[in-house]
Amino acid sequence: MSRWLIGQRVFCLLCMMFAASSEGQAHHTPPRAAPTKQADPAEVERRNLIVATFEGGAVTIGELEDAILDQNPLMQERYQSQDAVRALLDRSVRFALLAAEAKRRGYDKSPPVVLAANQSAVQQLIQHDFDDPITPDSVPEADIKAYYSAHIEEFVRGEGRRASVVMLGDKAAADALFAKAESLDLRGFRELARTQSLDETNKQRGGDLPYFDAAGKGFDSPDSAVDPAIAKATFALKEVGGTSRPIQVGDRFVIVRYSGVRAARDEPLREADDRIRQRLWRDRRQAAIDVHVEQLKQAQHYSVRRELVDAVQLESGPPLPPTDGLPGGFPHTPETQPRDAVRVDSAPR
C-alpha cells in the first residue's frame, strides 16, 4: 500500500475532526440548505439539537440527517428504522473520536495526510470556480455552429480509401512484376513492397499508405496526403484487393493495391451537437483553469530556476515502508520511523 493511499484513507478519518473547534467547545455543522425548512426557526432549532457530545465536539440531529441525505436514495431507505439511525450515530461518534485521537497524536501533520487534504481542497476549488459555472449547457449554440462550420471535414466528407504500393525505377520492371503482384494476397503484396520497392520509407511500411480521399487528401492529417495519380488509380479499382497496372508517378512506376475503404460521412449538426458541446466545454474549462493558475503565479511572485531541474536525483534501493513519515504509535506504527535516505516521490496518480 502506498503512502499516498494511506494518506487518502486517513484523511477521511480526519475530516470530521477538523470540524471540531480547537477550544473544545461543541461545534455545530450549519444545517443543510432547505428552502422550506431553513426559514422556520423551530426547524433550525430542532436540527441543532445535540444528540451526543465528547471533548472537542458534538453530533447534532441535523448532521445525522445530512449524513443520510448525502447517500444515494437506495441507501437512504435503510434509515427508515430507528435502529438504523442509532447505528449511524454510533458510527459517527466512533469516527469523530478516532479523528480527534488522530489529531492529538499529530497524525494530521504527516505528509500523506497534508497532501490528501490539499488535494481535496483543490478539488473543491475546481468544483466551485470552474465546474459549477462552466458546464456543457453554458456553451452557446452559436459557438457550436461556428465550430461545425470551421471543422466541416470532421463531419461531412466523401469515401476514403487505403492502398499499398510498390515503387519501381522503370516501366519495364514494373510490367514484369505486375502479374506476380496481382496474384498475391495483401500480406504477400506488402512483403513484395519490402523487398522490391525502391523508396526506402515506402519499403519500411510494407507499401502501406494512410486513408485518403479521391483527390489524395489525407483523412487523418495533411501529412498523410498521397499523390493524386495514386488516388485516381485506387478509386478506379472496383473492389478491395484489386490491383492497378503500373502508373507513372514522377520518375517512378507504381503498382497500386486497393487495401481498405472508409465509408463516406454525412453527420448533420443536430447529431454532432453533443460531441462538439463536450469538446468546447472541456477546452474552455481547461483554458479557464490555466488562466487562473497564471494569475496566481503573478500574484504570488512565482519564479523557477529551470536550470536546476537536472540536479534532482532519485535514490535507488528498496521502497520505503507504508508508514514512512507518519507519527509513531498511531495506529499501528512503531514508535520511531528510521529514515536513512530522502526519496523524491512522483506525483500521486
Describe it.
With 349 residues, the chain is α+β, with helices and mostly antiparallel strands. The protein folds into three domains: 3-113, no CATH class; 136-151 and 267-299; 158-266, Chitinase A, domain 3 (Roll), CATH 3.10.50. 46% of the residues lie in helices and 12% in strands. The strands form three sheets. The protein has a four-stranded antiparallel β-sheet. Strand 6 and strand 7 (252-262) form a beta hairpin. The radius of gyration is 34 Å and the shape is elongated.
Topology of this structure?
Elements: H1 3-19, H2 41-47, E1 50-54, E2 57-60, H3 61-69, H4 73-76, H5 82-104, H6 111-131, H7 141-150, E3 156-157, E4 160-168, H8 171-183, H9 186-196, H10 200-204, E5 208-212, H11 228-236, E6 247-249, E7 252-262, E8 265-266, H12 269-299
Antiparallel strand pairs: 1-2, 3-8, 4-5, 4-7, 6-7
Helix pairs in contact: 1-5, 1-6, 7-12
List keywords for this structure.
349 residues; Chitinase A, domain 3; four-stranded antiparallel beta sheet; two-stranded antiparallel ribbon; 12 helices
